[in-house]
DNA sequence: ATGAAAGCGCTAACAT
DNA sequence: ATGTTAGCGCTTTCAT
């Protein structure tokens, strides 16, 4: 046989440690008795190959169990067909849904996903971004842990990788973004409460934040910031003094449920709550139950995100639904476009939220 | 400023398309005026390098903004420090939690995660596995779309990559597995119903399955199979004839809620339901409400998975809680061990489920 | 301790 | 249409 020979000579020290050597284009080429280049062309479906040769090569590949090494390919082409996604926590239904939306688009466009959790901390976010960059992802999707400290994002841009932000924006970074109309959403949601006659309304978020919220203060997450803005403005418009006093951040560190209990009990207790996401709504619901407050008679509750169960509780919960899937999908679409070379100006897409009125709002008790 | 200059000199045909050339060890070596090998040693923290040189190299790397190319490293070492995970659907809370559990362990051990959704179809599962293998992941975590058709899993084993199954097992494949004690769980859950006096009890799963379930039939998902086994055995022990007639599979294709409505209405309606996961429980809950059936007075309901909201509905739902996080984490632990070379016999870890009795079970109406 | 050179598996010029 | 060759960025012998 016209063995091209020498490539089989040495035992290799590399490999996956199971002693087996991966089948390479060279092997296939040898078996099909063509050059490496021709084999590669047939296998990689590029360049020009005669039908007969192509078939011969493919059969050989089949028989040897050839499986292309995507890494080697990336080394020479510079494209990895992989996009990185950094979410706060994949267990959070918001991120799970957004990730799914992104995954579907990515998949269709031929990209795989490397997933990392930042836990909303810039430090682990930095680490995550570091690995993804090292793996030479073609672009990144990130829900930035901070909209203010943009160093991690700058790293990405400096590395020359397209970046699309989702759920949150960041000032001063060259990137597209896909977010929801949080301020408007917050206004509507809060308006429901003020219209019903509430004057003591609390806004609860788990956003990490040291000390209490002060008016005009810059918040780490732009989406929460927007919600807070919508919330306080609406309160102010209703003539409620010191709206910012009703903003409760950092609820995770302190235990959401406990924070909720504090807010809805005592002499100056809130009579209504705006929960910044469905998990917070859950905690508030539990808190209310634990202190014997009925919703909506004793406490009104509205929340962001139409989690699947929000229509099932008694009472069902009035929510501001976000197109979560679409946020992830659209972000992925923008990213793919950038990766493919679109050099247009950066855009920020703002998707509408949708109010779903249910049964958790009533006038306050007198 | 001390611009080092030359790295911008040559145009390169590779790269990320943004015209920028990545900084390589060579560049750093040149800047630090040492050989490539030495620079690599200093950067990669292996081999022997004098302190002074190490420092010089690191400073140069810092200045140039060097970022190791993990792909090139993988090419030569054969290790990618990446593990692949294939789940049914990341949007499903079960998988989101298991993924998080796995991600945490992987992260600690220095591995990244490539995520794919199989949608429980062997075809897209095959595709997903193909890419992950092409990317030379060091090992795979998969919740197999089929416990019966093991070709996709065989591909992995044939490729010499460690494989750990989670949530489901598969016969005849050389792999570890981490599952929950589903049969026992199903027995307990169903027992609650038979003890309460129910005789017409339905089991609902979204597992894809053509035609109705027949006794002894092999099911695609081992976890569902085990639950069905526990369910039918318990009915049989209670003297209920033709237990298998009460097994309703394929509920997703037909619409879970509609399937539920069919089962809980009509002359031979079920008076109790075992939902194979929390999303199904949700649909049953909705179905009951839509046809005006009260839980538990008119219909008893129990389910697998203690989703966060199951304690909040009225009535709260009795569930069999699974250690989902731990399933993913333990699977990742086993995988990491294999990747590190553990050649011991394959194990299947079975984790216990835990019954949480709440308010959704009552005796059937007469 | 450091350097020179080979090679991982692939693609891309450049022949022929 | 096919082959030859060089090279992607790194690690790893093997010298020195």
UniProtKB/TrEMBL annotation, chains A, B:
Name this polypeptide is given: LacI family transcriptional regulator
Keyword DNA-binding recorded: yes
Pfam families in the cross-refs: LacI, Peripla_BP_3
Domain of life: Bacteria
InterPro entries referenced in this protein's UniProt entry, alphabetically: HTH_LacI, LacI/GalR-like_sensor, Lambda_DNA-bd_dom_sf, Peripla_BP_I
Gene3D superfamilies reported in the protein's UniProt record: 3.40.50.2300, lambda repressor-like DNA-binding domains
HTH lacI-type domain: residues covered: 23-77
Annotated region described as Disordered, given as residue ranges: 1-22
């Amino acid at each position: 046989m016209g063995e091209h020979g020498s490539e089989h000579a040495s035992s290799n020290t590399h490999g996956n440690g199971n002693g087996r050597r991966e089948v390479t284009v060279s092997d296939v080429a040898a078996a099909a008795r063509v050059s490496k280049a021709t084999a590669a062309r047939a296998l990689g479906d590029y360049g020009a190959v005669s039908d007969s040769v192509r078939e011969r090569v493919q059969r050989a590949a089949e028989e040897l169990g050839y499986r292309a090494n995507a890494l080697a390919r990336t080394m020479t082409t510079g494209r990895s067909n992989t996009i990185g996604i950094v979410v706060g926590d994949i267990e959070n239904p918001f991120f799970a849904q957004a990730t799914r939306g992104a995954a579907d688009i990515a998949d269709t466009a031929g990209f795989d996903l490397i997933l990392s959790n930042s836990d909303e901390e810039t430090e682990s976010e930095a680490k995550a971004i570091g690995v993804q960059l090292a793996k030479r992802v073609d672009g990144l999707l990130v829900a930035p842990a901070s909209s203010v400290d943009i160093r991690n994002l700058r790293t990405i841009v400096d590395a020359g990788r397209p970046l699309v932000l989702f759920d949150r924006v960041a000032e001063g970074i060259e990137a597209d973004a896909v977010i929801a109309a949080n301020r408007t959403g917050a206004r509507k949601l809060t308006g429901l409460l003020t219209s019903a006659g509430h004057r003591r309304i609390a806004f609860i978020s788990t956003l990490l934040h040291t000390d209490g919220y002060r008016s005009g203060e810059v918040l780490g997450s732009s989406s929460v910031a927007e919600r807070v803005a919508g919330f306080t403005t609406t309160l102010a418009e209703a003539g409620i003094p010191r709206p910012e006093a009703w903003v409760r951040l950092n609820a995770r560190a302190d235990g959401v449920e406990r924070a909720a209990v504090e807010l809805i009990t005592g002499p100056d207790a809130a009579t209504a709550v705006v929960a910044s996401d469905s998990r917070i709504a859950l905690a508030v619901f539990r808190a209310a139950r634990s202190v014997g407050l009925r919703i909506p008679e004793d406490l009104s509750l509205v929340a962001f995100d139409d989690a699947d169960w929000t229509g099932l509780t008694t009472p069902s919960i009035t929510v501001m639904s976000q197109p979560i899937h679409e946020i992830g999908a659209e972000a992925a679409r923008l990213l793919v476009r950038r990766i493919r070379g679109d050099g247009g100006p950066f855009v920020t897409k703002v998707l509408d939220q949708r109010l779903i009125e249910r049964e958790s709002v009533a006038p306050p008790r007198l």
